Amino acid sequence: MAGEEINAHYPVEIHEYLSAFENSIGAVDEMLKTMMSVSRNELLQKLDPLEQAKVDLVSAYTLNSMFWVYLATQGVNPKEHPVKQELERIRVCMNRVKEITDKKKAGKLDRGAASRFVKNALWEPKPKNASKVANKGKSKS
C-alpha cells in the first residue's frame, strides 16, 4: 500500500492480504499493458493455430475470472451466476487443447522396428532335422 501505512478503515489482520492483492493487481496490470501494446492480429500472425487457440482461451478465462472477482466485490454470489458455466466451458476447452498438445509430444511407434525387436526377442525352436544333421557331422569327425 502507499508507504505501507495501515489504514484505520479495515482490520489490521487483513493488511497482509490486501498488500498481496494490491501486488497481484499491479502484476495483472503490467501483463495487460504488455499484451495490449501489440495488436492482436500482429500477435496471432506469429503463432501457429494451436498457440492461437491457447492465447484465445487464456484471454477468455482471464476476462471471465476478473468478472468473477468483480461480482464477488459487488456482493453477488458468482457460483450462482452464468459466469461459472462459462468458466467451466473454457476449462473443458483448455483440457482439449492440452490433450492435443500432449499427443503431439508423445512418441511415435515405428512398427517396423517394433516387429523386428519382437521377432528377435522370441525364442525359436531348432528344427528337428537340423539337430540330426549337426549330430551326424560331429560323429564323423
Number of strands: 0
Helix content: over 70%
Number of helices: 6
Uncertain spans, ≥5 residues at pLDDT below 50?
none
Q: Whole-number radius of gyration?
A: 32 Å
Mean pLDDT: 83
Spatial separation of the terminal alpha carbons: 100 Å
Silhouette = elongated
What percentage of the residues does DSSP assign to strands (E)? under 5%
Profile the largest sheet.
none
The class by helix and strand makeup works out as mainly alpha
N to C succession of SSEs: HHHHHH
Protein name: Nuclear nucleic acid-binding protein C1D
Organism: Gorilla gorilla gorilla (Western lowland gorilla)
Subunit structure: Monomer and homodimer.
GO cellular component, one term: exosome (RNase complex)
Protein described:
With 141 residues, the protein is an all-alpha fold. Among the domains are: 34 residues; 58 residues. It is 72% helix and 0% strand. It contains 6 helices and no strands. The longest helix is centred in the middle third of the chain and has 25 residues. It is elongated, with a radius of gyration of 32 Å. The termini are far apart. The model has no long low-confidence stretch (mean pLDDT 83).
List the helices and strands and how they pair.
Layout: H1 15-37, H2 40-45, H3 49-73, H4 83-105, H5 111-121, H6 128-140
Helix pairs in contact: 3-4
Function: Plays a role in the recruitment of the exosome to pre-rRNA to mediate the 3'-5' end processing of the 5.8S rRNA.
GO molecular function, one term: DNA binding
Organism: Gorilla gorilla gorilla (Western lowland gorilla)
